[in-house]
Amino acid sequence: MSSKIAIFGALLACHAAVTSAHLMISNPAVWGGRSDELENPLQPGNENWFCHGQSRESAKGQVEVKAGGSVTFPVLCAAASNNPGDAANICGNDPNSWHNGGGCALSIAYKKDGVKPDDFVMFSSNHDCPTRNFGSIDFKVPANLPACDDCVCSWTWIPQTAADEMYMNCFNCKVLSDTNGTVTSGTYLKDHYFAVPGYESKGGARPLYKNVLPNGELKIQVATPPASANFQSNTTTTVATVKPSSTSAAVATGQATFTPAPTPEIKSAGLVSFSPVAWGLLPVVAISSLLFF
Ligand SMILES: *[C@@H]1O[C@H](CO)[C@@H](O)[C@H](O)[C@H]1NC(C)=O
Ligand SMILES: *[C@@H]1O[C@H](CO)[C@@H](O)[C@H](O)[C@H]1NC(C)=O
Ligand SMILES: [Cu+2]
Question: How many domains does the chain contain in total?
Answer without folding.
Answer: 1
